[in-house]
Amino acid sequence: MKSAAVAAIGAGATAAVIVAALVQAAGDTPAGQALGLAVSVPSNYRRLIEDAGRTCPEVSPNLLAALLKTESEFNPKATSPVGAQGIAQFMPSTWESSGIDGNGDGRRDVWDPEDAIPSAAKYLCGIAEEVKSVPGDRQSNMLAAYNAGSGAVLKYGGVPPYKETQGYVRSITALANQPSGGTTVTADQIATAINTAESQIGMPYSWGGGDEKGPGTGSCCSPNGFSGADIVGFDCSGLMLYAYAKAGIILPRTAAAQYSASEPVNPGGMRPGDLVFFGSSPESIHHVGIYVGSGYMIEAPRPGVAVRFARVDSMSDLYGAARPIPQQNKEI
């Protein structure tokens, strides 16, 4: 049976109808609610943190991000004067007992964020269990135990009277609970971007064509020698630039740069409005479309083929998906 989104596409409905159908069917985020992390995180760690941040109820993606920022400023090679190592600042003895092989490569490497980030979440969940009988806020007690040890939290019946530990708990809690400040895309912006892209269905493809103001003439020449210099229209990234500019989000001009400026997401967790990228590596990305759900995207495909709906699997070299964010991350 076709989904509501696919039926809407087939009926020529507006993209707003498509988004509404998908949100209703999937129970997705209500319009106007921000999606993603409030803490500013380098894009290559966001997926790791969002996945690991759901290991147990006491750990959230924002709390885990705030802890890593406080511990190391997301530096995977960080070391401390007392010997703590890596992005999560594990002491060697703690890593030996608590480190896990997060990426399944057969090694437990404290310097590898793919191991250290899920290890930090698992360790936090473990010490939360150790101090669960202690009165007070469970997250605060867990953070205090991460900093000072579970024994100190048990001894003092809560956050111990250590100036460093008390400041540690306060700073991480405040950072994790800060407002998003407009750094995440909302469902309203998603609907605007998809509606804008949908409004250009049938617009000619123009190599190098289009910008945040709309369709325009392009340039010469594509790798196959096609020129857009006399064609008013869009190339793939020009269409994405225009669609998200209408939503108040400015993207870079090229597909590869748009990937770098967005938040990577697991393909299984794609939402309407995410950008889908094609290539073999971040540097070789050559095509981008905007996902509208149920396996479909809107794209400006190639010279001679106008802007259209297409299946995401219509090209064989899907690299990944990423979620645009209003402000480019300066920490990458």
Describe it.
There is one protein chain. With 332 residues, the chain is of the alpha+beta class. It folds into two domains: 4-32 and 183-323, endopeptidase domain like (from Nostoc punctiforme) (endopeptidase fold (from Nostoc punctiforme)), CATH 3.90.1720.10; 43-176, Lysozyme (Orthogonal Bundle). 38% of the residues lie in helices and 10% in strands. It has a six-stranded antiparallel β-sheet. The longest helix is centred in the middle third of the chain and has 18 residues, at 113-130. The radius of gyration is 23 Å and the shape is elongated. Residues 1-15, 21-35 and 328-332 have low confidence and may be disordered.
CATH architecture of the largest domain: Alpha-Beta Complex
The level-1 CATH class of the largest domain: Alpha Beta
Structural class: alpha+beta
CATH-defined superfamily of the largest domain: endopeptidase domain like (from Nostoc punctiforme)
Distance between the termini: 43 Å
Annotated CATH topology of the largest domain? endopeptidase fold (from Nostoc punctiforme)
Brief overview:
By secondary structure, this protein is α+β, with helices and mostly antiparallel strands.
Strand and helix layout:
Layout: H1 4-10, H2 15-26, H3 43-52, H4 61-72, H5 92-98, H6 113-130, H7 138-148, H8 150-156, H9 163-176, H10 187-198, E1 216-217, E2 232-233, H11 236-245, H12 255-260, E3 263-265, E4 275-278, E5 287-293, E6 296-299, E7 308-311, E8 318-323
Antiparallel strand pairs: 1-2, 3-8, 4-5, 4-8, 5-6, 6-7
